[in-house]
User: Fold this.
Amino acid sequence: MNTGSIRSIRELVITIQFDGDMPALGELLIANSPEKGLLLVDHLITGNNAVCLNVNGDTTLQKNMTVQRTNRGIEIPVGDITIGRVLNALGQPLDGLPIERKADTPYRNIMQLPPRNNSFAAAKYEILETGLKVIDFFTPFLKGRKMGIIGGAGVGKTVLTMELIHNIAKSGQGLSFFTGIGERIREGHELYETLKEDNLLESTCMFFGQMDQNPVQRVLIGLSSVAAAEHMRDVQKKDILFFADNMYRYIQAHNELATILGQIPSEGGYEATIFSDVKILQDRLSSNENGSITSVQTIYVPADDLSDPAVQMIQHELDGTIVLSRKVAEQGIRPSVDLIRTTSSLLSPDVVGERHYNLSVQVQALLQKHESLKNIIAIIGESELSPADRSDFAKAKLLIQYFSQNMFVSELFTNKPGEFSSREETLKGVEKILNTTNVPA
Ligand SMILES: Nc1ncnc2c1ncn2[C@@H]1O[C@H](COP(=O)(O)OP(=O)(O)OP(=O)(O)O)[C@@H](O)[C@H]1O
Ligand SMILES: [Mg+2]
Assistant:
């Protein structure tokens, strides 16, 4: 017999008893309810019971209803059919257009193991230009690597992500995936409209499981979009850019599921399995002999506290993090990057070359000096500084201003045209400031 029967319903957790063979973990079951709800097997317990998640929040389920096995996991259409489209975690369209499945449309199970040869990460360094001075200078964007955009509420994480997608699509540097996890619904719509206006839909695939979705969908969206990206990497042998907004919400959704599944939280209120869940997703976002996945992940920081365990967990996986700060935003600097706390392990002479590296060392020294002089000035005033200190302080201020930049995606609300600066122009601009003599204080 390939059917089971619903024994209990508690929130999104449905327990189903089977007479014969037990379903596999990750298998989809279909309830014989009016909504024909999909149930995802989470784990098995004694008494031939499978504990399942109510994927679409089917409210018509009742005790003793029968449930049909499918012998399959969640499989979504992948490949060219996803290009320029907006899909949900089950691969269904959210853009109002039909998905035209052909006989040869490939499908992929969204649950996959990471590539075995994970150390493949590009042996040669290939810098992707973002056109954003502050990123190209402080956290160079490298093919196959991971970058984080981290900050509290409303500091500009989403706007910066959109700008990166825009600039990369425009410069034709690859196929981008955008994954909206647990964020505002309208943001997906805005991205879609912007890309459409600029004729950039052809280089973007979008997956959304936003804050209106239940935690099952918000977890699955991460897996679905990665699966679609993996297909492009492995079958079409493409280089992929993978943007996720917001990775913190992925952890939060897992955490909500753990709570309703009755798992016991450990450190910092997170369940023990969260570490492996995050690790598997991160490891799937990697490169292999077929192609590369370069990722940019935004990380919301609750209460502006960078020491939150979830924030640390994601940060650990990244090659560089751009820290956005409220204080900087309040000074009207965009993107509101905290230049001192922003770090990248890729800012080394091997990767960016001697010239760029030496400039970055000088710039960081000036910024550090600016930081400590600020405290002194607060006490004794700027006029008491030595001429050399005053000049350095003024140069640092010029640099901070220099890294502020108008964006294309915010043209509508700033009324200022977006700016693109090549890495060469950025380096020249920095050199010019460093070499100025007689900087007006
Ligand atoms: N580059 C920019 N130029 C002008 N305004 C900006 C820029 N970046 C952000 N803003 C302003 O800040 C607001 C918040 O930005 P954004 O939505 O990107 O923040 P967020 O960090 O994603 O916030 P949340 O944590 O709530 O998702 C924007 O709606 C916009 O008004
Ligand atoms: Mg946001």
